[in-house]
Amino acid sequence: MRTAKKKLTDQQKRLEVNLWIIVLVTLAVFSIYFVIGKDLMAYCKNSSVSVWPRLLAASAMEFGIAGLGITIVCLYRKTSFLSFGLKKENTLKAIAGTVLCFIPYIAYIVLSGQFEGYEPLSIMVTPDLHKAGIPTMIIGTLIVAVVWGFFEGFNYAVIAEYISERYPKDSKILDMGALTVAIMGILFHPLHFDALGMTDLVTTFIALYGMLLVRKTTRNSWGCVFAFLFIWNAI
After folding, report:
1. Distance (Å, rounded) from C-alpha 81 to C-alpha 170?
2. Is-contact 227 102, C-beta < 8 A?
3. What is the chain's alpha carbon radius of gyration, rounded to the nearest angstrom?
4. How does 110-149 read in b/e, with b if 16+ C-beta sit within 10 Å?
5. How many Å apart are CA 117 and CA 115, to the nearest integer?
6. pTM for this prediction
7. Smallest Cα–Cα separation from 192: which of 102, 108, 103, 66?
8. Which of 140, 160, 161, 232 is deepest in the core (most CB within 10 A)?
9. pLDDT (tens digit, 9 = 90+) per residue, 39-92?
10. Which candidate, 25, 34, 38, places its Cα nearest to that of 64?
């Protein structure tokens, strides 16, 4: 006997539209990166070119992948970023909980010999930013903080919240948004299936899934932003 399909509520329909906008925008930018990525990376690493066009090119691509989709949805829905947990309440708790979740990942990086120094807000053009003078270094570093720190971390928080609201689970441990976004984060990075690669995969999953559970529990997204500002893009 065929089971009747459950009718979606208006809110669920809106959430599905939101998620499809994010998916399609992200895939469109990824398609562009797939075509020009190799040349773009070579250009951004070319120190003979002025640092500003290289920084802006890299920032545009990064924002397109981790920020443009949620920004379009928030503008379309007239929703403030602040409504996704950017608040003072529970900020320290969210940051502390997130750091605890990243401890296995940090330990893996250090013990596997991959740690080369702690460099927050460091991307491929950072050395040239530091050589370009104080004004350029300050403004350039702020751009890096906004794109690679704020938007990359906040992007995870927003998408996870949308998915969790669309596919709610009455559980403190299993959360569809956190699970989906953690898997998405792993798939966006190189996978290796030797012992080190599997350890990397497991510790990365613990970090991302735990970070998003902390966000859900505290209703505060600053932990996600902190992680990408001072851990993920720093070690």
Report:
1. 26
2. yes
3. 19
4. eeeeeeeeeeebbbebbebbeebeeebbeebbebbbebbb
5. 6
6. 0.91
7. 108
8. 160
9. 999 999 999 999 999 999 999 999 999 999 999 999 999 999 999 999 999 999
10. 25
